[in-house]
Each structure stands twice: as C-alpha cells, then as structure tokens.
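User: I'm writing a short methods note and want a consistent example. For mRNA export factor MEX67, I'll paste the sequence; you return only the structure tokens, no commentary, since I'll be parsing the reply automatically.
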Amino acid sequence: MLKRSSAAPRGSRNTSPSVRGGGIQKRRAGPARVDKDGDLVMDPVAAGGERKSGRGQLGGQKSRARGPGRGSGGPSRGGNAGIIKAQQAIIRGLGAKQANVLESHVTTGGTMARVDGLSSSKAASNPDGGVESLLAFLERKASGLDAKSNRAIKIKKSLKKGDSVIITASPEDIAEIQKLDNFMFAGTTLTIQPYDPSSLARSDKSEDKKKAQVSPSAQETKERLRGILATRYDAALKLLDLSALAQDEGLKQMGVFDGSTTTSKIFPALMVVCDGLFKTRQEKRDAIVSVTLADNNLADVSDVAALAQTFPDLKNLDLSRNRLEQLSSLDAWRSKLRHLSNLVLIGNPIESQLPTIKTEIMRRYPYLEVLNGVQIRTPDEIAAAVEAAKSPIPIATPDFRDVGQVGENFIRQFVVLYDNDRPQLLATFYDMQSVLSISVNMQAPRNPKNSVPIPPWASYTKHSRNLVKINNLPTQMSRMHRGSQAIQSVWATLPATRHPDLQSQPEKYLIECHPLPGLADPNNQSIRGVDGLIVTMHGEFEEQNDSTEQALRSFSRTFVLGPGAPGGPPIRVVSDMMVLRAWGPLALPRSSPIAPETPQGNPEQQKQQAIAMQLVERTGMTPNYAMLCLTETGWDLEQAFIAFTANKDKLPPDAFIAGATR
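Assistant:
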C-alpha cells in the first residue's frame, strides 16, 4: 500500500496529479471521451484521433499495449444500433450525470458527499478556510474506524461551495466517511450527507455552461425513462411498480435488455431519474410509500441496492417471485430501510426459512409489522421494542441505601461548595489521603436531535486519566492526584461551574448510595476494616465563562466515603472519580405501569424493617422470627445475631426460610 510521506506538504488537492473527477478516467481529469461507437476512450494519449481499444470499452478489440479490455465481451460495432444508442446515452449521463462503466454494471457516479459545519469551526480562520485540516481529519478518522483493516481512506477531490465542502472518493471510502456524520471537528459538529453530482452541475451552469449541457440523446433517454416510470406509478396507492423490468416493452424498445443485460444495468439509471423528480426527502415520503420488485430474477438485492438510498423511508416492499435463498441475500440493505413495515418474500427459496430467521428480520427492520401478509407483531409491541432499543440495558430506579443520612448530607453540601467554595469543600471532606482522578470521554454516544455545541476540553484533557487513551504507566500514575493540596491545584485550573439545584431540579440527577464494608481503618484499629459508603452521581453542570453561549457538560462522579482520621474531617472522601462527556439528556429510568405502589411508613418503622432484613440475610430466619429476635434484644443487630447463634439449634424448622443455609 502506498503511503503519503508525512514530511511532504499536502499542496492543493485539486491540482494533485492523482486527483480524478467523477466517472472512470485514467491518469488525468476532464470529461470522458466517447468514440463514434459509444465506447469510453480510456487511453491517456488518445485525444480525439485514432480510436484505441483497451480497458473501459463496452466492446472492441484487444489492446495491443494492454491486452484484452475489461468489456471485450460486449456487443460489436456492427451490432444492434438501438442497443448501442441506449448504451451511449446512458454512458454520456442522465441529466448531466457522467456514468461509470464497471463490467456488466452501468451505475451513476455516486461517489460524492457534502460536508457541512466547516464555516462554524475554529479551523475556518486558517488561510485556506480550514479545508486542508478538514480533509486530513476525515481521512484520519475514517481510516481508523475499522481496527481490523489497514486500508487508508483517500479523498480524491474537494470543492468548497459556500458553507459546504463537496468531496469525491471511491464508493467504499465515501461509505466510511459518511460514518463520521455528527463527529466533532475543531469545536463544531460535522454533517455529512450523500451528494448528488447533478446538483453540482446545475449550480455550476452559469460558470460552465458547456459542462452543464445535456446531449440530445441523453435527454431523450431520460425522458423515455421518465415516461416508463410514469406508467408504472399508481398515485392513489402511492405505489411504484418496478416488477418484471426485463419484460417492459418500453425498455425493450430502448434496447436496454438484449438477452445478456440484467436489471443491474438499468435500475441505477431509473433511481437517478427518480431522484431528479423530488427536491426533498419529504417529497419522496409523500409520493412513494410502496415499491414492488417482484419477478426480477434477483438472487440478492445488490443489483437494486440504490433503492434504499433513493427511498430510505419506504413503508411497503414486495420482493415476490425472485431467487432470494437466505437472509444474507438482503445484506446490501443491512441497516437501511429502517422504517419498513410490510415485507413480502412469497415465491422465494428463503420463504421456507422464515420461522427460524423471523427474529433477525425484525431486528433488521425495527418497524416491521407484517411479513408475507401475516402480522408478526402489533403496533404496541413495535413501540415497546423501539423504546427498549434506545436503552438496551434496562435502567432501574435509583437505589439509595444511606446510613444515618451521611450520603445525603454529603451530596447536598458537595454540589453547593464545589460551585461556590472549593477550598472549603476540601477542608470539610478531603484529607491528605484522599484521591482524585478525572477522565474525559470524547466518544460517548450522543443523540444528534438533543445535542448542543461542545465547549473546548483543554482545561480537562491535561488532567485526564482515561485509561483507554492513556497507556503510559508513569502518566497514568501522575494523573492520580493524592492529598488536599494536590487536589486543590487541579481544581484551581478547572472552570467554575453551576450545577442544577438539587431541591428544585431533582430530575437533573440520578444518584445512588450503597454501604461499602472493608475500607481501610484510618485509626489502624480494625484488621477487617471499617464500613463506608459508595455514592454515584450522574448529572450535568454549566461552565461559567465569558462566552455568550451556554457551555453544558454531562458528568458521572463516584465517591467512596469513610470515617475520617484523627484530627481530620469526621467523614472523608477516600476516592473521587469524575468522568466528563459531551452533554446529553440524562437517561432517566422508566417506571413500570404494573409496579404496585409501596406504602410509605414512618421513618422508625422503615429503619426497623431495614435492620430486620439485614438479620434475615445473615441468619436465614424468616422476617417474622428476625423481628421477634430483634425485639427481644432492643433492636440491636449485633446482640440479636449473638442471641441467634446461641439458640439457633433450639429454633423450629419453620423459623428458617426454605432452602436457606443455617
């Protein structure tokens, strides 16, 4: 694999000798050359003079210099004139689109993407407007998406138009680059969408009318395809009938199907024409709800993969009477057509496998309700499944098991003091053995619908101990700050914050508290250690800075609390771990509609019930016997356990929970 030298300057991308425009071209840019027979002239020295055969021709003789051409099995020059005319029209482009000729496939040059967001980034102040930095970022990030692949992503060409950057690359590289949609670049969120080259031709009409012109033959072909689509469209049903294309008389008259040509050649062209009929995605949704691809002799959907790009919000799809044998036959649409609600596979070999693969089909198409005319789930079940998919790990309600309100009092004081008086916070809860660590997670998933601009991370990254990113052991250890003075020096460099008020905005937090036994005894009196608490707090805060924009961050903070050492705070922070990420709404737990309401007793009764349950766990006694034992010992848990140990052999069998260890 050739690699670009890191020392060499990138230079102007549009003047690189390796840059090629749309379509298949060899060694130089510029419009494709077509000879009088409709063949693409791919030889780099051919310039309108003698015709040379070779790679890139739909038909022709063997090249003297390069051996047989890629398309040497195509029709000869003396073949059917109608077929040659149709091929020539498609090659020259539908609606000013140049075509790629790849063996038996005739597809439009869908190798472009539009990147928005550069103008609002910090890189926009660069001399070149930040284009070079953006392209380098896209290539670097896209190349690193697949850890198992060493393939480098290469952007062949770029063009800045207004606030957008139009990039050209191979279809495989464009697919990887589109995965960077909603990634952060230089302080802004990038939007990356497929780009229709015809829109570029239309917008450049005033600058280069010659390039934007459509040949009469291409315009004729385009109009004939539009007419064919019109006869196959049912406005009342919003149905586009693309079944049995090889039997269509209109396509036969155009010479598209000559016995060797397949649906794969004409289908992309039909989708190009469909794209030109609609200006927005919403217009497509309003006009086309159902598509039938029945009777097209499809062994898989790779030949009609363009359907998912042209009509991504399709509701009903008929694939009847094709040759689909297994689920992998649909892989070209994997992670696409996510809104499909009705799928028909009748008359395919795969039909016999549906009972075993139905679950996987439903997973691929989360809104699928009807399969082969049979309802496989109700709308309520679909809504529940979609909601559950948003939080694949069930989120339970917070479990706050405090001891003597130590955890509650700590949280209430911590939030106020961290925002207003950090030195006082240190003096109240931290000592010379307290440990602080900070981790910045820049790759936490975010919902683009609820995202906000991300403020710079510079204040935090120099302290970050993210073990996924920091692999050097000395660095890892140096970023674990021990003692009040070390923690104070770190906090002094962090921005001032303002947390939501706990009393008036409790929905902004998710806080849990659990007892934690076995902490090191600061008095060195107990070998087994002492009891403490672990408190986990998830929420958000706003940074206080000079910017007019709101700077929100989400955080998760885990505290380990224990008894203080002599001369120190009575309750100390043993460990304080803070994880920061870009802001996103807090994933609150969903309450179960069938969960019975727990009656609220008085605090004393709740405390006794908690003590009784601890004795049940330690002894295996039933709750009733545990409460009797505690009543006899004045609700002293340790005394109750001693009494149980001394008398457990005298207790009847029904005093113990069935199956409990005695």
